[in-house]
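Homework help board

Subject: predicted structure for assignment chain

Our instructor gave us this sequence and asked us to write out the predicted structure in token form, then describe one feature. I got the tokens but I'm not sure how to describe them. Can anyone check?
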Amino acid sequence: MKNIDILIVEDERIIAEDIKMMLQNMGYGVCGIASSSDEAVALDRNLTPDLILMDIRLNGPVDGIETAEIIHKERDVPIIYVTAYADEQTIQRAKITGPYGYVLKPIRTNELNSAIEIGQYKFYMEKKLNEVKLRGEREKLETIQQLAGAVAHEFNQPLQALMIISEILPDAEEIDITDLSLRISEQVARMSELVSRLENLDSINTKTYVGSSKILDLYKKIDNPARDRKILIIDDDKTILRLLSRIIKKEGFEVDTANSIKDGSAYLNKNSYGLIICDLQLPKGSGISIFEKTYKKNLDTPFVFISGYAVDELSKEILERSAGFLAKPFSVKDVSNLLKNIFRY
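My token output:
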């Protein structure tokens, strides 16, 4: 998705040139720089950029928000606002124009890159949905709309993830923020696999949660909820492992962690657990092997998979037998809802 042309609308030339250099270093093309509303509208007509980075405050009588409205009346293009102003009134005005993201000044490379990737994928998904509507596939459209809502929800999480870390981890010095930002970008890229499957989807299982959000996850009711409040987490991503462990411990549970199939199996041989949370994809194997081992032993232990990959048919069959599925990146609320559902508290 790097092969796109971006129009920069910024009235401070030095900042505009800095943004241009930042974009080019990330592999994006810059088709032009506008310093006013009139110039932005003219360049958009002539150059038809794939995405616009729009400064909210511009010199002259027309600001960036009004400029976005003018452009959207002529054509549909994703616009991401860049601003040093984040007051409530400005945000409310900007929301009306349907932006595809916000980036606050001073601009950080990782945040800008994530905002552009998310904006492009959301825009691409909406175009695919419109194409489906034109073909009149009503039954298929309903399924795709559910999927689009779920994927859009997940696309909105990466930029918020860093905020979540700062809230739940006061000892943030232990976390490599740069590494985590890169991993978030990887999850966004992985979610793009879902977009390519839109054309061939016939049905999908969804679950409605508080706030009426549609999630691609499956939280099943457990007839005999586990009484043991000890949880085993198996994930090869040490950062995610540490974050998930911290979240669950704050809910009052005891936690063991393992980052491989070998270590996870060793814990299972020595201890009993009220819940097992395991990554679907692990080095030298799959979380499914641990699930099958638990299943064959007839252990009455709920098993939840976590993954950032699209679920294939084989994995889907396994998930039907498990207690649930958490899609990476997941929020604190997702984990809390899962625990409350399984442990009934």
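Reply (TA_rk): Your tokens look well-formed. For the description, you could write something like this. The CA atoms of residues 211 and 333 lie 12 Å apart. That's the kind of observation they're looking for.
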